[in-house]
Amino acid sequence: ISTGWSSFLSCSVYSLNEEGSLSDRDTAASSVLKSHTQTETLCNDTNSDIGTPRKNTTERSGLFAVETCIVTTEEYTCAFNTTQDLVMYLAIFLNAAALVFHDMTNPAVRLQLNHVITNVSDNLINKTDDGVNIHTALYNMKELAEKGAFNRCDVAVLLSSEDMFRMKDNTTIENRVMGIAYLASVCKDQKVSVGEDMPHTYSGVLTAAHELAHLLGADHDNSSGEYTNIPGYPGSLSCPLEDGYLMSYVGVGKKKHRLSNCSMEQIRFIYRNLSESCIQVRQQPMYTTRSYPGQNITRRQFCQMMHKGTTNPKANLRSDTSDTRTSQIK
């Protein structure tokens, strides 16, 4: 682990109110960290959003450090004992999602954790007895972006442990949806995505990577790209869905964790048309780590979390553990 927590020594702490605007408490983050113990519940934390000073970079290089805000729902936040536990998990989560972009060149893509907002209320995500309407949550995230809640970041990701659904034909609830994002909206008011993740399990990493790729400019494979209304935007018809890359609906093999050539070319196209202010790194990351999923949890612990309430977790394991639910973009 690198010197991540030192960046908390001087910063501002924010919280989201019911109207979705930011209130500045100017609380020293060092005292925030000290206020949490392993026995305290993070869901009672009022100092829930931590940032760092900006750092200006004037040179445009072949590296695109995507400055990322992560927003967590109240239920998601309460699954962690302390702020430190949550932020460390999210940093590792983002490391895992970044592996998908490992093959990217011109630019190389890295994901940088700039900001964490933890006290988003159920009202803001419109939580119901059926779960979270994913389209409503996405729209509310966009409204927060328009109000400046994510000005420190190029993209903003909402992670929810609640089950998400979408309305089909305005009458039928469909639960087979895990994530959603706006296409090619990095650094715009629509720079937001929504996705499911079971805390401590990293189950939503691939979904988050898929939606981040959408934000950076990648459409689904085997798409014409005509509906994007972006002049010159390259389609992906030369990349069949059957190849099973990240932006495909099919496939569960190694390619599922990689971008197709079409996806990379689409990201490059959007990158070449981004403003300098978007590409510039405006601040140092709030926390960094060299850790990845699997390094901080045993197989038994992971199995027990995935099969809660089962006395013998191995009894319910199947050889086919793939989830056929797919990310959606509308």
List strands and helices in order, with pairings.
Layout lengths: L13 E3 L5 E3 L4 H6 L14 E2 L12 E11 H4 L5 H16 L9 E13 L1 H4 L1 E2 L2 E3 H13 L8 E6 L3 E5 L3 E3 L2 E5 L10 E5 L8 H12 L44 H12 L3 H4 L19 H8 L19 E3 L2
Parallel strand pairs: 4-5, 4-8, 7-9, 8-12, 11-13
Antiparallel strand pairs: 1-2, 3-5, 6-7, 9-10, 11-12
Pfam families: Reprolysin_5
InterPro entries: MetalloPept_cat_dom_sf, Peptidase_M12B
Organism: Amblyomma triste
Description:
The chain is an alpha/beta fold and 330 residues long. The chain contains nine helices and 13 strands. The strands form three sheets. The protein has a seven-stranded mixed sheet with strand order 3-5-4-8-12-11-13, sandwiched between helices. A four-stranded mixed sheet has the order 6-7-9-10. A two-stranded antiparallel sheet has the order 1-2.
Give the proportion of residues in helices: 10-25%
Tally of structural domains: 1
**Rounded Rg:** 19 Å
Major β-sheet annotation: 7 strands, mixed
* Contiguous helical run count: 9
Strand-pairing-aware structural class: alpha/beta
For the secondary structure, the number of strands is 13
CATH architecture: 3-Layer(aba) Sandwich
Compact summary:
The chain is an alpha/beta fold and 330 residues long. Helices cover 24% and strands 19% of the residues.
Question: Which features would summarize this protein structure in a list?
Answer:
13 strands, globular, alpha/beta, disordered N terminus, Collagenase (Catalytic Domain), 24% helix, 330 residues, 4-stranded mixed β-sheet, disordered C terminus, 7-stranded mixed β-sheet
